Amino acid sequence: MRGQVVAIGLVIVAGVSVYVTMTSVSNTLQRTLNLYYREYAFADAFASVRRAPEPAAERLRRLPGVAELETRVAAIVNLEIEGFTDPVSGRIVSVPEGAQPRMNRLFIREGRLVEPGREAEVVLNETFAEAHRLRPGDELGAVIAGRRRTLTVVGIALSPEFLYQVQPGSLFPDPERFGVLWMGRSALETAYGMAGAFNELAFTLAPGAYGRDVLERVDRVLAPYGGRGAYLRDDQISHSLISEELNQLESMALLLPSIVLGVAAFLLNIVVSRLITQQRDQIGILKAFGYSDSTVALHYLKLVLVVAVSGAAVGTGLGAWMGSAMAELYLEYFHFPYLAYRLDPGVVFAAVALAGGAAVVGAALAARRALKLPPAEAMRPAPPASYRATVLERIGLQRLVDTPTRIVLRNIERQWLKSGLSVLGIAGACAILVMGMFWQDAFDHILHVQFKIAQREDLTVTFTEPTSAAATSELRSLPGVQHAEPFRNFAVRLRNAHRSYDAAIEGLAPDPYLRRVIDSDLNPISIPEGGLVLSKNLADILEVGPGEEIIVEVMEGRRYERNVQVVAIAEQFLGVGAYMALDEANRLAGEGDAVSGTLLMVDPRYEEQLIEALRERPRVASITSRERTMASYTETTAEMLLVFTFVLSLFAGVIALGVIYNSIRITLSERDRELASMRVLGFTRGEVAYVLLGEMAVLVALSIPVGLALGAFLSMLSAASLQTEMYRIPVVLGRGTFALAAAVVLISSVLSALLVRRRLNRLDLIGVLKTRE
Amino acid sequence: MKAQPIEAVFETRGLTKVYHMGEVQVHALRGIDLDLYHGELVVLLGASGSGKSTLVNILGGLDTATDGRVLYRGTDLTRAGERELTQYRRECVGFVFQFYNLIPSLTALENVALVTDLAARPISPLEALQLVGLGERVHHFPSQLSGGEQQRVAIARAIAKSPQVLLCDEPTGALDSETGIIVLEALDRVNRELGTTTVIITHNVVQGEIAERVIHLKDGRISEIARNERRSRPSGLTW
Ligand SMILES: Nc1ncnc2c1ncn2[C@@H]1O[C@H](COP(=O)(O)OP(=O)(O)OP(=O)(O)O)[C@@H](O)[C@H]1O
Ligand SMILES: [Mg+2]
């Protein structure tokens, strides 16, 4: 029994520790986030505009539903950091000189805020500063409004607004190549000709105000100034990414432990069933002596509760330890100013209750049967098990199987419920693995589609504002450029009936070579004339299909609306997209033959030199490298995924081992007599092991395909539930995933077999023959 | 292969078995010198705890002696390893126990076939069952058979591989006298028709009458060996 109890205990430990870890971390993060947002006055909504005079802000402040509102000046700039050759871009955001902003306040980690009259002082976001080891006193170069400047770092700070520091248009942070900087308001106003004006604002909502209505009012005020559409916190990139992360954690915190504890309940059920069968006569005697059913039940209940509670205790301890380690990781990952890991008593209580509940349910189902027996009957030996020929044999295939195999098959069929549940339990372990590794597969697939098929440019150069098409030819002639393709971007609001979405239309060259729009079979499609191509998720949000018309509200410069036909739907996993032929896009934007930037294919030998040259150009706003972007995606996630996969494999292994080992042990205890008899008859150890392990082998063989299918199904569910506007998760499962999942189950089986083999070899041949079953 | 009647199938010399139970030593066998001959039917009698089962288990290769020697047709069983003993049981020995030890998931016929599949010169399972008078019930599972019927299946299973020796430890112990006699008849018939050397342990002195020799054990020693002038038929016995 000891081995079995330990195995079940381990399964409970696994379930409880996953639950405690994930729930406590999720709670801790949520609590910290709320506190941080509150203490540092994270705004409820944001808006950007081309250029609005300060009096417009006064009008906005008086709008119903707007509580507090703060304007600022912000810009995207190219940065130069000594010793780092890759293109780096930054988002400079203004702060009042010598004071904290009222909203999105900074947590000063080191140094100080910007002081009045010091034009060249900047405060750096911590992630960015750390990536380049910049400290207060260090300098960095920046091209601000076309002029090269040297900036002095005076402080290192954190902001609730940039927990995730993500470049616009990108989805993963890349702290080496994109950073947030804060600079004095008047310095930025001067540089960008924004004196007495602003181009960004943040505001809070009055209690009870309905956000969407307020946004509409704000948009109306800003429209004449080139408003780009206000948005709520939920659409703010850092917040939405962090919410995403927390949701994922939360859903995992529920799903995983449920599977694991379900398995534990099943294991306790079969062990208690077996125990009751073995102690049947004792139960009968106790009942004959007048012990009540509940006293007898209590005896078994205590037994399982001891296992459950000790499992829960160890699991909670382990969970708290893993939780605090994981919280530490998250603290670094998100750059919270503080993070106090706390294990809520509620979580501990829930963990113990879950484990205890699973144990009690498992044991109660087993005990019910025993308690129903009248004492006299219980004292008699259990009626012999009745067997019959299996389905396989009844349909006339008996000649295919030898006698030992028949024993195997008949036992499986006779205990079909137990066999079925064993299959489900092992399949559950297999499914957990598939689901865990599914993320890696999906991620690989996304990267492949995005960066190998759709995006093939080496560098993306964006201009400070729409520029004449000649700019592309100019870049094409630079040394090292092998191919150049223009694109045109502009902000729009897409509407279909009551649905609307703020996006950018991307005008692409006819038959583009570098940036391609692809269909659901991942084949590049040329952008048809006469309308828009929408990415699938955008089409879903707007509820439109090909051939239907939507309203495009151009949000740049003069605002106006046009009806545009949707001509095709494109596959896109990262972000949303709306694409058009370049000339049509220009006609729609109404600014003549312009380009927003150029995609370049570059001879790698010239890349560094080319970046240098591009930086010199005043109209170049940013330079991003696809290779680097891709690398940063992989770096940030690869490690997390590896740890995740390893932990999952371990847990899945524990579950598989728990189920398989217990099933074999139960079978051994039910049939030791039969197996000993076979040994007496001259069957070798191997032949006897075949009868015992063959049964398990059949169950494992059945459970692997079931588990893989179940895993695929769960992956589909979790992909669907975690899908957002930011990304669509493709359900792709690599062969490696299936192979590893199957391998973990097989290894657990072999391990269980080896553990039991020892017992099998020590079967007491003589002892078994002396007693009646 | 007809052997001369005087050939000894088993020869034991100074056979000793000591069980260690913590500090206590239990001397189950204290030096047994015994020859068993080919085709002979022997009954082992003795008080409970006198060492009957221990002796038979050692003869059958289920247990090993602490001291002394057991020769099976000249081969020393005391030197055999686990693998050789399994092989020996598989090829040469048939066992019948008090509790029939049938495989519950196999029918009577399959229980017998389980063993004949392994044997070099088996008789057909059906024939074996007919020999013990169970030709009619071959497709029944053990749970569908009475105790006596199950015991006869066990005998059929033991003899179907045509073993050299048949070792029976209280084969009638769990049966009423009427059924016991049917079982003994089956054993008697197998011994006569197949010439299998047969050892039967019993507490029932009357059963000694069907044997050629009756061996009495007492405290792990042979206290008496009696030779019957004439073997009685089991059907003539009453107890
Ligand atoms: N595994 C064992 N461990 C310790 N002592 C044992 C063991 N098996 C048998 N003995 C002891 O050895 C002695 C002989 O036992 P054995 O089973 O051979 O007796 P038996 O003559 O077959 O008795 P019965 O008629 O009751 O079956 C007894 O004293 C018994 O207690
Ligand atoms: Mg005995």
Averaged pLDDT of chain A: 86
Biggest beta-sheet profile of chain A: 6 strands, mixed, barrel
Distance between the termini of chain A: 19 Å
Query: Rg of chain A from C-alpha positions?
Result: 33 Å
Strand content of chain B: 25-35%
pLDDT < 50 stretches of chain B: 1-5
Number of strands of chain B: 10
| Mean of all residue-level pLDDT scores of chain B | 89
Instruction: Detail the poorly predicted runs of chain A.
Output: none
Please tell me what the overall shape of chain A is: elongated
Task: Count the DSSP helices of chain B.
Answer: 6
Q: Strand fraction band of chain A?
A: 15-25%
Q: What is the β-strand count of chain A?
A: 22
For the terminal residues of chain B, how far apart are their CA atoms?
Answer: 37 Å
How are strands sequenced across the largest beta sheet of chain A?
A: 3-4-9-6-8-7
CATH topology of chain B: Rossmann fold
Query: Strand-and-helix sequence of chain B, N→C?
Result: EEEHEEHEHHHEHEEE
Biggest interface goes to:
A-B, 32 and 35 residues
Helix content of chain B: 25-40%
Question: Can you tell me about this structure?
Answer:
The complex is a heterodimer of chains A (773) and B (239). Chain A has 773 residues and is an alpha+beta fold. Among the domains of chain A are: 38-238, no CATH class; 415-456 and 625-773, no CATH class; 481-602, no CATH class. Chain A is built from 21 helices and 22 strands. In chain A, the strands form 4 sheets. A 6-stranded mixed β-barrel of chain A has the order 3-4-9-6-8-7. Chain A has a 6-stranded mixed β-barrel with strand order 13-14-20-17-19-18. In chain A, a hairpin with a 5-residue loop joins β15 (517-518) and β16 (524-525). The longest helix of chain A is centred in the last third of the chain and has 55 residues, at 626-680. Chain A is elongated and about 100 Å long. The mean pLDDT of chain A is 86. Chain B is α/β, with parallel strands linked by helices. Chain B has a single domain (39-63, 91-236), classed as P-loop containing nucleotide triphosphate hydrolases (Rossmann fold). Chain B has 6 helices and 10 strands. Chain B has helices at 52-59, 82-92, 108-116, 125-131, 147-159, 177-194; strands at 8-21, 24-37, 41-46, 67-72, 75-76, 93-96, 165-169, 197-201, 213-218, 221-227. Chain B has a 6-stranded mixed β-sheet with strand order 6-7-8-3-9-10, with helices on both faces. In chain B, strands 2-1-4-5 form a 4-stranded antiparallel β-sheet, with helices on one face. In chain B, α3 (108-116) packs across α4, α4 (125-131) packs across α5 (147-159) and α5 (147-159) runs parallel beside α6 (177-194). The longest helix of chain B is centred in the C-terminal third of the chain and has 18 residues, at 177-194. Chain B is globular, with a radius of gyration of 17 Å. Chain A binds chain B through residues 383-388, 402-404, 406-407, 410-411, 414, 673-674, 677-685, 765-766, 769-773, and chain B through 53, 57, 62-63, 83, 86-91, 93, 95, 97-99, 101-106, 110, 113-115, 117-118, 141-144, 157, 169, 174. The complex binds adenosine-5'-triphosphate (ATP) and magnesium ion (MG). Residues 52-53, 169 of chain B line the site of magnesium ion. The site of adenosine-5'-triphosphate has 12 residues of chain B, from β1, β2 and α1.
